[in-house]
Amino acid sequence: ASLVVALNQIEAICRLTIPLKPATIEEALAHCEVLARSPGLIIRLQSARAIHSLLLLLKRTDFSYENVIWPSLIEAAMSELRSTMPSTVHGALLTLQQLCRIGCPLICDHFDALIGQAFHMLDHQELCIQQTAMDLIPDAAHCCPLAFNDTHLKSWIDRILRSLPGEDERGAIEAIGSIA
């Protein structure tokens, strides 16, 4: 419970208008990254929220610094997608999702590999990994819409339609609409 409270406090501090030094943000990100790989699902999810807030704060604070932090976050998360530990894989997906949600342009440099891994994770045995991969794909598509439309859109739509039981088209339409 104390970790969740601490992560909530990080989120709250990020909402303040008090400028923080980029090094302080980087240190907090490093701690949240470790917690994002925690065995506890609630801690991983709260860490992702804190990471999102820290990335947004960094984006508002120092535009040059993001070129130092973002590449290392992306490289580490992409590497961790190959882990055999479900909590590590889930944490890596959550980190990549937060980078996509803040509009990290460097995601496009890893886009095909990211989408390939996300598609692969849709068949993972852990439901939280499947769900996060499902949510990550439209988030990544928003970062790199041309690359997604050119090479992955048809596969994504086909995958959504195949995954539906019977004739439930409403869910498919909602999922497809999330990338529009």
Commentary on this structure:
There is one protein chain. This protein has 180 residues and is an all-alpha fold. The radius of gyration is 17 Å and the shape is globular.
Q: Could you state the oligomeric state of the chains shown?
A: single chain
* Global Rg: 17 Å
Runs in which pLDDT lies below 50 for 5 or more consecutive residues are none
Helix content: over 70%
Q: How many H/I helical runs? A: 10
User: What kind of sheet is the major sheet?
Assistant: none
Order of helices and strands: HHHHHHHHHH
Termini Cα gap: 38 Å
Tell me the strand percentage band.
under 5%
| Rough outline | globular
SS class:
mainly alpha
Tell how many strands the DSSP assignment holds: 0
Mean pLDDT across all amino acids:
85
Quick take:
Helices cover 75% and strands 0% of the residues.
List keywords for this structure.
single chain; 180 residues; mainly alpha; 10 helices; 0% strand
Question: How do the helices and strands line up, and which of them pair or pack?
Answer:
Layout: H1 2-15, H2 22-35, H3 41-61, H4 66-80, H5 86-101, H6 111-121, H7 127-143, H8 145-151, H9 153-163, H10 169-177
Helix pairs in contact: 1-3, 2-3, 3-5, 4-5, 5-7, 6-7, 7-8, 9-10
